[in-house]
From TrEMBL:
Ranges that cross the membrane: 75-97, 117-135, 147-168, 204-227, 239-264, 284-305
Keyword Transmembrane helix: yes
One GO term of the biological process aspect: neutrophil chemotaxis
Protein name: C-X-C motif chemokine receptor 2
Membrane topology: Multi-pass membrane protein
MF terms (GO), sorted A to Z: C-C chemokine binding; C-C chemokine receptor activity
Domain G-protein coupled receptors family 1 profile: 51-302
Gene3D superfamilies: Rhodopsin 7-helix transmembrane proteins
Localization of this protein: Cell membrane; Early endosome
Length: 351
């Protein structure tokens, strides 16, 4: 299968774009397969499932004590969990080609796109929520639960609408040369501009806009924390820097490669060398896995690192008989309230 996938890229360099002209180049996204890629997908899927499932379980067990941040964390964990669900199918695709048919090709492509948009939008919402809880704590009330719920519903609706073009353009196809099936974006010369517009929209809405919101909100939060005399502020500052750093490291390389790939595939930048296209696909696959990893990191950065969440997790484990009362008391004894949780009862975050 590895040799077949490598041949796909080579063949695609040699063929024009229309199946009617007798020399067809499938406008697909071939997967650069190497030993670590499948392992990376499997590990990412496992980590996504475990970490985000724990977050959802703990928040759901909190019943009436859910804060605005808890609601955002639940939806973020759900988005990342759905994203991880799609990775299982792409892992099978790497080994055996696309064996799930046209309907699943469209559905899973759309689900992955929608969950990706939802995840980054919710990260931006959490940054705003933290900003209100810390910077505006004395002037602005934290959003009430109905407002946060409506915001999350709007995030999912917008994400699904943005994923619709992907659902429409994705299709399943059998390749005669390599004798296996693929799930790819069906395009021709008439849809090049549409693909460029979609790509630009994905870059702006799926990366630069959330990054801008996070940068503004967290920068203001950092300034506020810096001028406070609190022994927990250094930890809070490190958490903020880790959140922004992880987002940039995981998503920036992927979006840069995606932009280059978009320009070349749309013929706005001419590149005829197969070696360049092959290297680009390799970089695309590597950076895509790196972006996947961020969804597994989210539970650690936004939930497990917080004292309040850890105490709730321990309480849930105790109620399920997983840990003893003595061990629960030992863990909770040294717990120190975080800066954000001392400033506002509406925030369960570390800050």
């Amino acid at each position: 299968m590895k040799l077949q996938l490598l041949l796909v890229t080579a063949l695609s360099c040699l063929r024009p774009s229309s199946p009617q002209d007798g020399a067809w180049q499938p406008p697909m996204t071939p997967v650069f397969n190497f030993e670590g890629l499948l392992e990376g997908l499997e590990n990412s899927s496992y980590d996504l499932t475990v970490g985000n499932s724990v977050v959802i379980c703990v928040v759901c067990c909190m019943a009436k004590r859910r804060s605005s941040t808890d609601i955002y964390l639940t939806h973020l964990a759900l988005a990342d969990l759905l994203f991880g669900f799609t990775l299982l199918f792409w892992g099978v695709d790497i080994h055996y080609g696309w064996i799930f048919g046209n309907g699943m090709c469209k559905f899973l492509s759309g689900l992955q796109e929608a969950s990706e948009y939802s995840s980054v939008f919710l990260l931006a919402c959490i940054s705003v929520d933290r900003h209100l809880a810390i910077v505006k704590a004395t002037r602005v009330k934290s959003p009430r639960r109905p407002v946060v719920t409506v915001t999350c519903a709007a995030v999912w609706l917008v994400a699904m609408l943005l994923a619709l073009p992907t659902v429409i353009q994705r299709r399943h196809m059998s390749t005669e040369d390599l004798d296996y099936d693929i799930c790819y974006e069906d395009k021709d010369e008439n849809t090049d501009r549409l693909f460029v517009a979609m790509g630009v929209m994905h870059q702006v809405l799926g990366f630069f806009l959330p990054l801008g919101i996070m940068t503004v909100c967290y920068s203001s939060t950092l300034v506020t924390l810096y001028h406070r005399h609190n022994r927990q502020k250094q930890k809070a500052i490190r958490v903020i820097l880790a959140v922004v750093f992880a987002f940039i490291v995981c998503w920036l390389p992927y979006n840069v490669v995606l932009l280059i790939k978009l320009l070349i595939n749309s013929s706005l930048v001419e590149e005829r060398l197969c070696e360049t296209r092959y290297s680009l696909e390799a970089a695309y696959s590597v950076t895509k896995v790196l972006a996947f990893v961020h969804c597994a990191v989210n539970p650690v950065l936004y939930a497990f690192i917080g004292v309040k969440f850890r105490n709730r997790l321990l309480t849930v484990c105790h109620k399920r008989g997983l840990i003893s009362s003595t061990l629960l008391a030992t863990f909770k004894k040294g717990s120190v309230s975080s800066v954000g949780s001392t400033r506002s009862r509406n925030s369960s975050v570390t800050l």
